[in-house]
């Protein structure tokens, strides 16, 4: 009886990037200060000194899934979930990169927190609804507020209209 041992060869981040450049010549892979997908540049930015191959594959998933822009904030969470799912189920196995559920959920939690902060009424703290891009309305007190883009900067909410009570 012969026994076989499965050997898993894990690519270093640098080796993985070389492989990704070969496999996806239509994309650029460029060192940057953060992991991100820039659709208008067809570029995946990655932290050069990072060993976080999961985030690299997540950003590549945005490219492969052709994620561009969104108009409703909830859409961002949907595309983030899709990119993590693709990275975890398709790219992770292909490139022998384990993408742990905890990392996925931790990342998605940052977007859930972002959405919650944006949709919280600055007047009464109830949860509002997005009525158009960057504009929310409160179902409780009828206030309206504008939000900034705030994905990588501090959230700002500016009250535009507040219903007066007598």
Summarize the structure.
By secondary structure, the protein is an alpha+beta fold. Helices cover 39% and strands 19% of the residues. The protein is built from four helices and seven strands; from the N terminus they run αβββαααββββ.
Please outline the helices and strands.
Elements: H1 13-23, E1 28-32, E2 36-38, E3 43-47, H2 53-64, H3 73-94, H4 101-119, E4 128-132, E5 135-138, E6 144-147, E7 157-161
Helix pairs in contact: 2-3, 3-4
Description:
The protein has helices at 13-23, 53-64, 73-94, 101-119, and strands at residues 28-32, 36-38, 43-47, 128-132, 135-138, 144-147, 157-161. The longest helix is centred in the middle third of the chain and has 22 residues, at 73-94. It starts with 12 loop residues before the first helix and ends in a 5-residue tail after the last strand. It has four helices and seven strands; from the N terminus they run αβββαααββββ. The model is unreliable at 4-9 (pLDDT under 50). The chain is α+β, with helices and mostly antiparallel strands and 166 residues long.
């Amino acid at each position: 009886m012969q026994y076989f041992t499965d050997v898993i060869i894990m690519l270093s981040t640098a080796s993985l990037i070389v492989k990704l450049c070969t496999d996806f010549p239509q994309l650029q892979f460029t060192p940057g200060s953060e992991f991100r997908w820039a659709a208008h540049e067809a570029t995946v930015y990655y932290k050069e000194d990072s060993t976080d191959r999961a985030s690299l594959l997540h950003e590549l998933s945005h490219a492969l899934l052709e994620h561009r822009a969104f108009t409703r904030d909830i859409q961002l969470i949907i595309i983030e979930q899709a990119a993590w799912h693709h990275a975890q189920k398709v790219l992770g196995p292909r490139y022998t990169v384990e993408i742990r559920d905890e990392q996925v959920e931790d990342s998605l939690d940052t977007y859930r927190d972002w959405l919650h902060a944006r949709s919280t009424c600055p007047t009464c703290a109830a949860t509002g609804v997005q009525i158009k891009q960057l504009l929310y309305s409160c179902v409780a007190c009828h206030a309206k507020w504008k939000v900034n883009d705030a994905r990588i900067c501090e959230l700002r909410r500016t009250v535009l209209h507040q219903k007066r009570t007598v």
